Each structure stands twice: as structure tokens, then as C-alpha cells.
Amino acid sequence: MSQIATSSNLGVRDFSYLDLPDFRQQYLSSDTALQMRFFVDGVKCSRCIEKIESLEGQLPGLTSLRVNLGTHQLEMQLQSEQFKFEPVVKAVEKLGFTLQPIQRKEDLQQLAKIGDRRDLIRLGVAAICASNIMMFSFALYAGATGALASLFQWLSFGLYLPVLTYVALPFYQGFYKALRDRQLSIDGPIVIASVGGFIFSAVNLVRGEGSLYFDSLAGFLFLIQISRFLQKRMQRSFLSFHGKLPIESLSRARKLSTLDDNERFVWTMSERLSPGDLILVKQGEVIPADGVLMSEGCRLDASFLTGESCALVRNQGMAIEAGVILLSGDAVLKVTAVAGQTQFGNLLIKIQESSGQKVKIQNLSDRWSQILLISVFSIAGLFLALAWSTSPAMALERSLALIILACPCAMAFGTPLALSFSLRRAFEKGFVIKSADVFDKLLEIKSVFFDKTGTLTGRGLKVVSIEPANVSAEVLAQVLALQVVSKHPIAEALRRYIPENILPTSGFSEVEERIGQGVSGRYAGSIYKMAGVMVASGAKAVALYKDEQVVVQFNLQDPLLDSAAVLLHSLASRGMQISILSGDSVEEVARVAKQLGLSVSRCLARLSPQDKANLVQGDQQTLMIGDGANDALAFQQADLGIAVSGSVEVALRSADVYLLSEDLGKIDELFEISRRAHNLIRRNLHISIVYNIVGGIGALLGFVNPFVAAILMPISSGFILLSSWLGSRK
Amino acid sequence: MNILYLAIPLAIVLGSFFAVGFIWAVHRGQFDDLETPGHRILFEENTNLGREDFLKTTNHQEKL
Predict the structure, then answer these.
(1) Is the Cβ pair A128, B43 closer than 8 Å?
(2) ipTM of the complex as predicted
């Protein structure tokens, strides 16, 4: 039974639009003219990959079919223009996988790939240069002299040039960006050390005396690059997840057009729709534009959009909003508004406008590096002024040595390393995190806002009790016979409730479903009917009637997730203020509030997306937890947004964290991971501060020459590596 | 010690050879997907089964 329920959610999947010229342009990958990319759901192991990829060569014109398990993507390549994508997509879906086409302009993964390749090359160049410089330096430290020594020194110089001009480029960019925003980031000291160290060493090289730091600098730049690369990779995994209700599905509609003197519904891009057009929407699809229902009554699911837990019923002539999902049969609509004029389109525009406005916080290591940088420079300046009278050359050399040595390099790679370990740990616990800022922000959270439908309560109704408590399997079989085809959420709840070994009674005739009035049918001479029962507000009940007599009554509710209470309890014990912001009815919200023991004054109902955002904005240090399109704006206004499993795509894109499981209790673990990440970073900072003080004093007293630096620097890096590794292991 | 004058240029040539090779491999997409190719080696190389038979022999769909 559960299988019927899941497949019914998908409805009829129609991919014929993919092969229309207008659409091909949108979906074809920018790499190759005959390639499309899809998100693929359900691929878990080698068997799945083999099943999909074995279609290659079995379908006409299909030259390549490649699954990428890491990014959950499928790449499809055709031999020439005359072949179609649709049959391939259908064949893959028939194997039990669901596909979602990726539009060219939305292909963030593709952009990320290009960035990744660039970073990799940079890393490779850094590794080759740094290791060769170190090899030559080793010979120098071991006592090479004469012409050979000078050759090695010049070779180190030559090998440092690509590091300075190419590998260190991202640091220059970061430094410039921070300066423009009148801030000092960790990139500042890195740039000063790598450029200053280069000039200092180059001057010494030409003079033929004094110290060279090419080896230490190149080694550090490599370590910093690789740790940043690791962090970026972990954050990147956010891009490989996609939510429900893809925005992409709003971009097309079946419009009634005249083709060869025949009127037919054909796929058109939504932007070509105009008010007055007739469009056809099939079961399970998203309504692409606001319109008036022209066909018979239908049932709609607006829970993703508004948070309303009840299925909506619309009769002929009533208005329907874009963004809701059609649950019953096919429907024909007369378009009244498209794109930005619809409420949903407006929401999307607002989200786009306010994206990227989120305040970037200055993280712990940036703050520390600022303090360090200021103190190092003042000490160096002071020393230079005081020692100038004794010996200008000595003063200059020692203060420069201080600046190079005190570069918070260990800090610069210790932090990203600690963060990437924490990101990985969070991922293992089921969190995908967009940016490592999350760890810092989470520890500051004071008030938490919850969405209700789909977040605190599951999506979909659940049978909580039946009257009478004992009913025969025969009665349940009759109920099933009446409910087997209905797409109503209540029917789905009943199908889930009735044990799988019970099969629908055969022999029902004249089974008929009337929207808003239930299902009736004739069996063994009696008329059976499943219909709603009037009960106290906030509750839902249906009953099976046999000749107008109630046989059995089912009471249904939106089930509260077990983990919700656990999470709320632990959040409250952390001293956080908890509120519910819902678009659902007052009764439903009050019921949930009561069950969770929250004061009704903090649980607000009937809120629009904008209301939610305003309420969140009005508070400080906020965390929003939700799943629907109506939470997306609030996600952006909150300091932190967590989208729970089953979120819609709009919400997912504006959230900072995506929780992959339904277990809300995991959010508590995220607090724990953040706390540990924070501690680990602090410990790394302490190590690097101690090192800087010792090294700095040594440099000023003149104890530090390149040989000592070459020993000291790897030791400090080793400590940081060890500390990060130990901290992430526990 | 004279051998060094041969060994050092050789080391540099070798180093740049690897650098170029690495850049070429990155551009060819060798490192884009580190996960799936590991699974691909497990495929049977030559299935003489038709697609329908292939589907029949797998009960994976039920497991999902």
C-alpha cells in the first residue's frame, strides 16, 4: 500500500517538453550541445549505477549515460539532434529512479566544478614548487657552499615566483576585498608575509648575505590552500541536494493552441503565457500560473506554499494560486496572472532580492588575527625605532624576521582544517551545511522559531483512533475498496493505516468519488459510503456508512513528530525562547502548542511568508526551522535557517543548513558539534599564539635565522594538524 | 659532484613534466568525480542479456 501512496505523489511524469526546441535551449548543457544534466534520486550503490548505465547503447541515439554518485547527477548525451531525450528519461524512471532536469542557468554544480578544477591546479603547482624549494633548501642547510649554494638559492627564488604570482592570487583577492570593506581578514597577514618575505629574501639573495625564507613561505601557502580547499569541498556538498517542488517545474505549462487546425494542449514556456490562455495541469503537477478553474472541482495541496495542513477543495469557477500541487485528476485553468504577478512568483522575486544580504560575521580567527597583526606591527615598528641608532641593518633585518615569523599562518590553516573536520562530522550526522559560519552563529542563538506543518508535524495525516476499537478485517477491506484510488490525503492516511495483508474487497460497483462529499459504492445490495463526520473543531474524522448507518469511524490528526518534543525540551533547557510561526489555522496551531506545552501567545497562526519574515527580523540572534516556501523569506531574515528533510526547493536554497533526516533531535547534536568546533579553533589559536610569542621574541633577539625558522614553522604546523585531528576524532 | 649539474636540470624537467601532466588530467576531468568510477569497476563487463532479462534478474526495485 505504501508504494501506491509514494508513487501517487509523483503523479504522471511527462517529460515530452524536454525535446521541444524552446526547451532544449534551456536544458542543454553548456559543455556539449547534445547533453543534459539531471538530478537523480534513489541511486545508492553500484547496482543502481550499473542498472542506469547499462541503458547506454540499448536505446536509440544514446551515446553516453553517466551517473555521478557524489553529486547525485546524471549526464545524458545523444548522438545527434534527431534523437530525443524523453525516451531515455522514461527508461531511467521505469527502473525506479526519479529525475529532475537541471536548467543551464541553474547549474551551480557546473560552476563549482570549474572553480574546483582551478583550485586543484593551484594546489598542484603549490605542491610541486614548495617541495622542490624545500629540497634545495635542505642541501643549503646541510652545508652546501660556493657556486652550488648560489645556484640552489637562485633556483629557490625561481620556483617561488609561480607561488607568489599564481598560487597566492586568492589571498590577494581576499585581502583586497577585506580592505574595500575596511576590514582586516586573515588574508592580510598572509599577503604581507608572502610578499614582504619575498622582497626581504630577494634583497638578501642579491646582496649575497642574510636569510632566505622561500621554503617556509611556499610550504605554508600550500598548507593554507589545501585546508581551505577541504573546507570548500565540504560546503560544496550543499549544492548536490535538491528540494521538493522544483522552481524549474513552474517554468512550463501546457497551453491550448491550434496546431494543424486542431486544438491541443502543448508545452509552452510559462513566460509565453498571458492572461486568458487555457492551460492543462495533470495530477501531481504544480500549478504554473494563477488561474480560474474551468474544469470540474479539484483538490489541491497547498501545504508547501502556505503551511495549511488540510487539502483545499476548489470548484469550477474558483481561483487557484500558482505553486500549489494538484491532487485530483486533470484540471483546466484559465490563466489570470503569470510569473511575478502571482503570489508565488512575487515570493520568488523577494527571495532573490534579499539573498546575499545576510550579514557575514567576522569569525573568531579573523578577530584574533587582527589583534595579532596590529601588535606585531607595533612591536616591529617600536623595535625598529629603538634599535635604529645601534645598527640600522640589524634593526631592519630583525623586525622583518618578526613580521614573517609572526604571520598567523598556523591560524590560517588551523581554522579551515578544524571547520572541515566539523563539517564532515555534521554531514555524518545528517546535516548538509552551506557555510562554516553556521558553527559560530549557532552558539549565539537566543530564540528559535519553528514552522508547524511539515516541521513539527509530519506531512500528511495519521489515523489516531478508531471507533469501535475492534473492527473486523472484512470492514477494513471494504474501506480499502472505497479508498483505493482516491488521492485525498485522508484516503492516503487510511491506506497507510490499514495493514498490508488486507486486500480491498472485490465486487464493489458504482464506485464514485464526489469532491467534498466522499466516496460511495454498491456492494452486496447495500450502499457503502466513506464520508467526513462533523466533530469538534481542529479534529478530522471520517466514517464508513452502510446504508446511512455508521459502521466505523476513523479519527485523524497531523501527527506531531516524536522528536519535536525532545528537541523543544533541550532547547528550552539551553535557555532559548521558542515560538511557532505557522500559516495553518488557529485551532491546529493551538492544538500543537498545547501538546508541546508552549504558551499560546508565542504560537502564531495564519501568517503570510512576509509576516513570518517580519517576526523573525524583529528578534535578535534567531534560528528559523522550517520546510515550506512560506519559510524561505524567514530563513533569509534569520541569522540561521535550518530546512528539514522534505523541504521545497525555494526553502532549501535560502536555508543555511539542510537536515537530511526527519529526526529533529539531531539539531541538538548540531549544537554540540558547533561547540566542539569552537573549542578546537580556540585551541589551535592558543597554540599559534604561543608559537608567535616565542618566535617573535626569538626573532627580535636575533636567534632566528632561516634554519631555525625552517624547523620552527613545521613544528607549529605539526602541532596544529595533530590538535585538529585529535579534536575531530573523539 | 659534477653529476649534480645533470641531476638538477633533470629533476626540474621531470617536475615540470608532472606539473603539465597534472594540469592536463585536471582539465580532462580526471578528478571531477572521485566516487562513481570506483563502483564502475564492479560492473559485469559483458552482459549478453537483453534489457528486459536484465531487469528481470534484478530485484533491486523491490528493495528500494
Answers:
(1) no
(2) 0.74
